[in-house]
Amino acid sequence: MIIEKANKEEVMPNSGMPTNETKPNRFAKLKGKIQILGREIKRNKTSYYFIAPFAIIFLTFYVLPVLISVGLSFTYYNILEVPKFIGWQNYLNLFVADELFLKSIKITFIFALITGPIGYLASFLFAWFINELPRRVRAILVVIFYAPSLSGQVFVIWGIIFSGDQYGYINGFLMELGIITEPYQWLTNPKYMMAVLIIVILWTSIGAGFLAFIAGFQTLDKNLFEAGYVEGISNRWQELWFITLPQMKPQLMFGAIMTITASFAIHDVIVPLAGFPSTDYAAHTVVSHLVDYGTIRFEMGYASAIATMLFLVMVGANIFIQKILRKVGT
Amino acid sequence: MWKLKRRTPNRSISGDFTNILILLAFATFMSLPLVYAINNAFKPLEELFQFPPKFFVRNPTLDNIRDLFTLMNASWVPFTRYIFNTFFITIVGSGFHLIVASLAAYALAKHKFPGQKIFFNMVIMALMFSPHVTAIPNYLIISRLGWIDTYWALIVPAIAAPLGLFLMKQFMEQIPVSLLESARLDGANEFTIFMKIAMPLVKPAWLTLLIFSFQALWNMNGGTFIYDEALKTLPSALQQIVATGFARAGAASAIALFMMIVPLTFFIISQSRVIETMSTSGIKD
C-alpha cells in the first residue's frame, strides 16, 4: 500500500500542475496512473519475487514495530491496561518535567561526539594502513583489530582491568610504581567514569565499518592507480584523496551510518562496567533512560516517546553526515 | 619494508615505517585485554586474587573449565544444551540471512521497479534505529505470533537484518551492468544470472554478511523471548554464572573465553578464504 502510493510519481514524473483541472478529469488521470502502475508491477514481477522473503519479515519485525512505537508514544500504557490516548503529554513531560532526560541528552551527545568521529576515522585509517602491508601480515592485523568488537561481551574484562580495588590491574600497576597510594574508583567515581567508558567504547568501535573498509580497499580498480602515477599523483595522501576515496564512497556511507547509530545507542557497554544506573547518573544515556522506563518502570508510552525522539536525532545526524560525505573526493 | 627492491610508486620508506609503528602501537592496545582474558581463564583462584595482579598466568590450570562443566551439569540443563542452542540459532539464522538478503539486494541493486527506492530507504531507516527502540513492540508481535519460547523468536527477525541487505546491495552495485546485460542477451533468466554471475562476484561480501549475522546471533541473549531453560543460549548462561558472583570468577572467565574463541576462529578461517578469492576475482568493467 505505502509502496504503491509513494511511487505513482516515479512512474509518471510529469503529472504535476493539477491546479486548474476539474475533478472528473483528475480522477480519470489518477485511474490511468494506477493502470500504468499495475502494468509496471506486473512487468517487474520477478523483482518482487526476489525481495518478497526479505520484505515480509522486514515489514513485520522492523517497520511495524516502529509504527507501533510512534503510536504508543501518544498513550499511557503499562502493559496491563489498554493504552490510553494522552496526546503530546509524554513529550511535554520529557522536556519540561524530566530533568534526568535533559541530562541524558547531554551525556549521549558527549559520548557520540567523542567516540563517533574518532572511531570512524580510526577504522578508516587502520584499514588503509593495513591495506599497505603484505597479504599475510594484513590478515593477522585485521583479526587483531576486529577481535574486540567480534568477541561480543568480552569487553567485560575491562571491568577487572579498571576494578576499583587493589586487584584491579590498573590500580595494582600504578600503586606498585608508586604513582598513586590508594586505589582509584575508576568505574564508580563520576570524575573518571566517562573517560574510562570512552576508552572502552573506542576499543570496541573498530567494527562493521572497519570490515567494510577492508573489503572496499580490496575491490579498488588497480588501473586507476596506474593512471594516477602517469597523471602525476606524487604521494600516498594525494592518491587517497583523488583515487581511493571516490571509489570507496559506498563503504564510507555504510561506515558512517554504523558509527552514528552505534554512538547514539551507547548503553550495553555501560551497564556491566559502571552499573545501572551509574553513580549520580553520570553515564546515563538516552538509551539508558529508555531501558529504565521500558523494562523497569513499565511506562511503555513514555518509553516509546523517548524512543521516537532518539530516532529523530539519529536520522537527523545521519542526513547531515551523508551530505558531508557526498563532497568527499571532489 | 620487506620488499625494498620492488617498491610501489608513491610510497616513501619513512612513510611505510611510520605506518608500521602506528599499527604496532594500536595493535598492542587492541589485543592486550583479549590476551588478559585468555590468561585469566587459566589462572588458579589464588592468582586471580593476587596483589599486585600479574598479567600473565604463572601456573596454568584447567580447573576453571572443569568447574564450568561440573557446575552446569549440576543445574537443570546440561551445559552442552546451551552450546547446542546457540550453535543452532546462529547457523540456521546466518544461512537464511545470507540467502534472503542477497536475493533482495540483487533486485534492489540491479533492477528498476516501482517501490524500490521507498523500500531501500526504509531499510536504511531501520539501520539507524537501535534495537532497544523496537524492543517493546517486538515483544508484542512475537507473543501474538505465539513464538515465545521457540527458536523462531530469535531466528526469524535476524533473517531480515537490515545490515546485511544494505551491505550486499552496496557491493552488488559495483558489478558492471554490461556483464549482466550480456548474460541476458544470451537468454539467461534473472535467477540464473543471480546464481551464476552476481553471487560469485560478491563472494567477499558473503563473508561480511555471515560474520555480522553470526556475531549478532552468537551474542543473542534472548532473555525477553525465551523462558524455557532448555532453550536458553550461551550468553544467558554466562549471565547466570556471573550473577552468582565471586566464587565463580574462574568459571566466568572460562565461558567468556569460549564465547570469544568461536567467532574468532570462524572469522580467521573465513578471512583467509576471502583473501584467496579476492586475488582471483577482481571486478573490471
Q: Biggest β-sheet of chain A, characterized?
A: 2 strands, antiparallel
Instruction: Give the helix proportion of chain A (percent range).
Output: over 70%
Question: What is the domain total for the residues of chain B?
Answer: 2
Shape of chain B: globular
Q: Give the uncertain stretches of chain B in residue-range form.
A: 1-5, 275-285
Find the biggest chain interface: A-B, 112 and 104 residues
CATH topology of the largest domain in chain A: MetI-like fold
- Tally of separate helices of chain A: 16
| Structural class by helix and strand composition of chain A | mainly alpha
Output the keywords.
heterodimer; A: 330 residues; mainly alpha; MetI-like fold; 2 domains; two-stranded antiparallel sheet; 16 helices; 71% helix; disordered N terminus; B: 285 residues; 13 helices; disordered C terminus
Protein described:
The complex is a heterodimer of chains A (330) and B (285). Chain A folds into 2 domains: 2-90, no CATH class; 93-326, Orthogonal Bundle (MetI-like fold), CATH 1.10.3720.10. Chain A is 71% helix and 1% strand. Chain A contains 16 helices and 2 strands. Chain A has helices at residues 2-11, 23-43, 45-72, 89-96, 99-131, 135-150, 157-161, 169-176, 190-203, 208-218, 222-231, 236-247, 249-264, 270-274, 286-296, 300-326; strands at residues 75-76, 84-85. Chain A has a two-stranded antiparallel sheet with strand order 1-2. In chain A, strand 1 (75-76) and strand 2 (84-85) form a beta hairpin. In chain A, helix 5 packs across helix 15, helix 13 runs antiparallel to helix 16 and helix 15 runs antiparallel to helix 16 (300-326). Residues 1-18 of chain A have low confidence and may be disordered. Chain B is mainly α. Chain B has 2 domains: 13-61, no CATH class; 68-280, MetI-like (MetI-like fold, Orthogonal Bundle), CATH 1.10.3720.10. Chain B has 13 helices and no strands. The two termini of chain B are 33 Å apart.
